Amino acid sequence: MKTHLNSVLFLLVLMVAISGCAAPRISIFGNNGEPLKEYTLQGSEMKKVLLIPVKGKINDDVESGLIRKKPSMVQEIVAQLKKAEKDKDVGAVLLVIDSPGGSVTASDVLYHEIVQFKEKTGRKVVAAMMDVAASGGYYIALPADAIVAHPTTITGSVGVLFLQPKVTGLMDKIGVEVQVSKSGANKDIGSPFRAATAQEKQLIQAMTDKLALRFLDLVSQHRRIDAKGMTEIASANVYLADEAKRLGLVDRIGYLNDAVDEARRLAGLDKDAKVVVYRREKYENDTIYNMQSAWTGGDDRIVLIDLGLPTSMEGELSTGFYYLWPTASGVR
């Protein structure tokens, strides 16, 4: 092991020596610990539209690597909102959402933080939906002053899942059992080691219905949708952009540049107002379609250790309540 490490270090030193002034930037542990810095993507005026990407499952889990940890999605987005609060030149925030949703609590935290940002600053928020903005991905778009769906966006899935993995069948096959002593009849409710009782199923369903009602109430509060439309939406169906617009789930259909123009218009900004992002790394030829805030690889940077080691199998989610469209998240 020591010999192998010495060989790697020797190779790196040799590469730097050969490259001279054109030496590649070397990142041993990535750069997720770097501070957020502002980069301009478009425009030249003083006032700004801040673009914040929301990509992937919504969660508040810190991703553990071999040596360092990556901030959760909630931490990353809230950090950007807090930074924007302090900059009076940020006239509007554009949330670029490509997410099937995630945990109930993480989705609600982001919803709350966006509402708080608007109340504290009086600034406009626009949501731009990309490939998928379903369930929790739609939930966090609700406080927006305008929701713009890409022509091919899939959205909706207004509802709740309670995911509860079960291993009882496997345990029966291999002859393993778990003995449990409990202080109350429902202390081990949701246990993966036994089948749920009828009473437990009723309790879980009641909680699921209550969380779904909260979601629907927020849709009704933020969107002008009649009773017939709300009944249809309550089925938790997913919709393409044109159907979502018909129901009132989105305001208009357009491309990302259209969403930028909408943010400028609502905030009363000049057409040449800057479009900015907060990143932990500078990207050459950066555009509004870049959904990353930290470097994950490339031609001019060597990443020796990938710290994004998964802590669970792809698509696996622990027991809990989710504002999630499972088909788009890899859960079956």
Polypeptide structure, described:
The chain is an alpha/beta fold and 332 residues long. The chain has ten helices and 16 strands. Strands 2, 3, 6, 8, 9, 10, 12, 13 and 14 form a nine-stranded mixed beta sheet that branches. Strands 7-16-11 form a three-stranded antiparallel beta sheet. A two-stranded parallel sheet has the order 1-15.
Number of helices: 10
Q: What characteristic shape results from the CA principal axes?
A: globular
> Biggest β-sheet: count, sense, barrel?
9 strands, mixed
Structural class by sheet pairing and helices: alpha/beta
Contiguous low-pLDDT stretches (5 residues minimum) are: 18-30, 295-315
Span of the ends, CA to CA:
40 Å
Task: Kindly report the average pLDDT value.
Answer: 82
In helices, the fraction of residues equals: 25-40%
Tell me the radius of gyration.
23 Å
Helix and strand element order: HEEEEEHEEHEHEEEHHHEHEHEEEH
Residue fraction in strands: 15-25%
Number of E strands: 16
Q: What's a concise summary of this model?
A:
This protein is an alpha/beta fold and 332 residues long. It has helices at 2-19, 73-85, 104-121, 136-139, 168-174, 198-222, 227-233, 241-247, 256-267, 326-329, and strands spanning 25-27, 37-42, 45-55, 63-64, 69-70, 90-99, 101-103, 124-134, 146-149, 154-156, 161-163, 238-240, 252-253, 273-279, 301-303, 320-324.
Question: Keyphrases for this structure?
Answer:
3-stranded antiparallel beta sheet, 16 strands, 332 residues, 9-stranded mixed beta sheet
